[in-house]
Amino acid sequence: MSFSGDAKEELARVMPRRRCCQLAELAALIRMDGLLQVGRGRLIAILVTTDSASVARKVFRLVKSVFRLQARIVVRRKRRLKKSNDYVIILPVRGERPDLLKDLGIKAENGNFFFVANEDLVKRQCCRRAYLRGAFLGGGSVNSPEGTYHFEIITDDESHAEKLCDLFQRFKLAPKVSRRRTWFIVYLKESDQIVKMLSIIGAHTALLDFENVRIVKEMRNQVNRLVNCETANLTKTVNAAVRQVEMIKLIARTRGLTKLPQPLRDVAELRLQYPEASLKELGEMLSPPVGKSGVNHRIRKLEHMAEEIR
Ligand SMILES: [Zn+2]
Questions:
Q1: How far is Cα 183 from Cα 161, in angstroms, rounded to an integer?
Q2: Within this chain, do residues 158 and 221 fall inside the same structural domain, yes or no?
Q3: Tens-of-pLDDT digits for all 310 residues of the chain?
Q4: Is residue 237 part of a domain?
């Protein structure tokens, strides 16, 4: 299963203990995936559709616990994609039930029913977490940390996107919103923020997996940077040494190394013998030993000489 799927499986099994949080999570799930079935100006049923059996079970349990109602689950087989099914949880609404409408943030007006922001649902911090968890289960996804860091919740309701942004910000997260046709995407891009969000909604196993991959990934990047840097230095040293050998050979061919002053001759002969040695190493091989800058100085003189010959 995908990283996102695993996170959802984990969160589908988290059952909030308090009724206030159970209601908040259920309301979020219904707002994300719910459909209000209306007949003759009355709300007949609430239908929640999900492709996850675990999420369906969760909605069923929440409905039972919060409203003492028995929902029905219908499995719809997808013809084209044989692998996954759709689960429809049908929550029948008998009688007026103004309490239920108010609790779920559903407003009735002239026989129409629609969702409104219900501030009571997210008054407490515990309920805000539960609401975000429900919203993620209903329309969220999170990329595997192996790839690009990305966490998002998608809704087709602009005011709900704003509400979600507000909730993100309550936890000191800085979400961005983008629009894709009729959809509004509330998303996070920074790994630190995604880790925080996973913790807020209670996806602790997903969080640990995310952190493990992130650490390995960042370490690998760091090692690559170091290796690249060392390779670059090494290439520079080798190129310089190759140039030095060529110029010493030129001097040897034209003037002869035996004509050189002893200090220059020593360095020139050592360089020919050890083309891959660094200046520091060459200096250590001289007797008496000479520092890197001393060797560099002699090499410069040899370069001058070669320039004149050329
Ligand atoms: Zn609560």
A1: 9
A2: no
A3: 899 999 999 999 999 999 999 999 999 999 999 999 998 888 999 999 999 999 999 999 999 999 999 999 999 887 666 667 899 999 999 887 888 999 999 998 888 898 988 899 999 999 999 999 999 999 999 999 999 999 999 999 999 999 999 999 999 999 999 999 999 999 999 999 999 999 999 999 999 999 999 988 888 888 888 888 888 888 888 888 888 888 999 999 998 888 899 999 999 999 988 888 888 999 999 988 999 999 999 999 999 998 888 8
A4: yes
Whether residues 107 and 235 share a domain: the answer is no
Q: Look up the domain containing 84 and give its range.
A: 3-202
Tell whether 124 and 173 lie within a shared domain. Answer: yes
d(CA 243, CA 222): 32
Up-side HSE of residue 6: CA atoms within 13 Å toward CB? Answer: 13
Q: How far is the CA of 124 from the centre of ligand 1 (A)?
A: 6
Distance 20 CA to ligand 1 centre (A): 4
Calpha distance 135→229 (Å, rounded): 45
pTM: 0.74
Residues with CB under 5 A from ligand 1 (ion): 18, 20-21, 124, 126-127
**Ligand 1: distance of its center to the CA of 99 in Å?**
18
**What CATH number is given to the structural domain containing 162?**
3.10.28.10
